[in-house]
Amino acid sequence: xxxxxxxxxxxWRQDGPDQPGKLVDYTLDxxxxxxxxxxxxxxxxxxxVAEGKEEPIEFDYxxxxxxxxxxxxxxxxxxxxxxxxxxxCQLHMRNFSDGDTIVIEPFRSxxxxxxxxxxxxxxxxxxxxxxxxxxxxxxxxxxxxxxxxIDKTVADxxxxxxxxxxxGACVAACPNSSASLFTGAKLAHLNRLPxxxxxxxxxxxxxxxxxxxxxxxxxxNYAECEAVCPKGISxxxxxxxxxxxxxxxxxxxxx
Length: 255
Prior knowledge:
Blueprint (H helix, E strand, L loop, with lengths): L3 E11 L6 E12 L4 H15 L21 E3 L2 E2 L21 E6 L7 E3 L2 E2 L2 H8 L21 H11 L6 H5 L6 H12 L8 H14 L10 H5 L7 H16 L4
Parallel strand pairs: 1-5
Antiparallel strand pairs: 1-2, 3-4, 3-5, 6-7
């Protein structure tokens, strides 16, 4: 592959949540294979601004290091693009070829309304966390390290679930627009630790019911969420969430 090449883009443009949207064609020459996907969009926006015929394309990002989860794009029908366990911001143009047509759309879900172009409102995730994604602790100085013994396998598994960055790829990939992987990961990472045990039942019921209230669909075990998760989180988190929810609702949710 040459260092630079030409790509054709079909990008979703939408002025606002209540406005109709459509795919708009662009062609970008001299794309460097070492560019990240977002750097490519930056170059395109520079050309759009220079021409002065339309507004630049709105897309979301923050850290550009695969940590914050803001760079939520559907690329050629796949959340975050063709590379496994990779956020959009860490996807590079060397994964595409000269003359390729790339379709770029926002994450689509009733619970993720489009704000503008490729930017969606993911505040539903924030409200799920507010419903119980925390532990209540006494204020004051930090406790001594290792003051609460935790088995290494438990700590490692909790950490694996805690790697969820809340990007929403699981929702975008799910045929039902379910947020079960996100909610399950957030629950499992707290519920498995002794610090999270006192509020486990209440937390589980509150977060699951908030997820349903936000309008996310039910999980049907397609496992598309696991396939596109940039952190490789297992759908075992969903099974664990379901078990804990059933136990909590049968036993009562008093902390």
